[in-house]
Amino acid sequence: MIYDFIVIGGGIAGVSAGARLASLGSVCVLEAETAPAYHASGRSAALYEGSYGNSVTVALNQASRADLDTLDGGLLSPRGLMMLGGPGQEAALARDIASMALTPLTPAEAQARVPILNLDHVVGAAMNDDAWDIDTDRMVQNFAKTIRSKGRIATHAPVAEITQDGTIWRVTANETYRARHIVNAAGAWADQIAAMAGITPLGLIPLRRSVARMPAPGGHDVRAWPMLLGADESWYAKPDAGAWLVSPAEEDRVDNPHDAYANDLSLAEGIARYQPFVTAEVTRVTGNWAGLRTFAPDRCLVIGPDPAMPSFLWAAGQGGYGFQTAPAASQLLADLVADRQPALDKAHISALCPSRFR
Prior knowledge:
There is one protein chain. The chain is α+β, with helices and mostly antiparallel strands. It is about 30% helix and about 30% strand. The chain is built from nine helices and 20 strands. The protein has helices spanning about 10-20, 55-70, 90-100, 105-115, 135-150, 190-195, 265-275, 320-340, 345-350, and strands at about 1-10, 25-30, 45-50, 75-80, 80-85, 105, 125-130, 130-135, 150-155, 160-165, 170-175, 175-185, 205-215, 225-230, 235-240, 245, 250-255, 285-295, 300-305, 310-315. Strands 5, 6, 7, 13, 14, 15, 16, 17 and 18 form a nine-stranded mixed beta sheet that branches. The longest helix is centred in the last third of the chain and has 17 residues, at about 320-340. The mean pLDDT is about 95.
């Protein structure tokens, strides 16, 4: 069988692209692991915050909101985001408030929402109530269902070779798959997939981020608490199924992509940054994990056909914005393939186009 599209990578970038492209032809998604959303997509903070990211990412966030509100009956639930600044972070907090259009709070007002805050350390706070948890599993499964209606998702399918036979791509991944187009949604491995296909890599940079899971601080019921973010994204903490996540929000470069694992020193540093902001002492960590957030050099996503080989399509560089941009990013890719007018304006489309690196 010759598919219209082979999508390499079964994370949120790949399954959302595959679902949108399914309206244009047959789709096969190749995922090296045992199930979709195994790597970065399975280790996301799962928050929608429309103003998070640079201006191009914000445009994708905002263009995705309607779908996030309606897909599968709606994928968002209330969370909220609270920004906190400590001594010496006043200027960074002011920049964050301005760039993310946050509502300033007094430390006492912040403590009324999150009672463990240490007012001896918190010098400023701000809030965005329009921040939402994303049901990431339902999102992935919704897109996967659409793909399976027009094609298949093959797991345990690591790509070993990519060649061309005229206008047809041949992809070897345990068995041989053939298609008219390849969609490179391979996350941290996207440049490797490009090189395998004879396409010039873009210089994508995988960056590790670690997370520690611990009991709810002080025995509190944290389910209604907002996500906490240190000024200048120096750490974050977030409720998680009745427990509590703390991350150093680090971006440590990884030169050889792999199944990432948390760095103990980074976790210790993150907890040390977080601890002065709260009165509840961290005494026990029950688990940890890490993911690779992969960025293009300019930290904008890469969406669209490669200028040297239009049948090779990029859906890469999601960084930490994969879930909240996926509906709009995947729709843009489908619109470009179908030669339809996208909803995004030309400036943002150009900023996302792979040709910007050529």
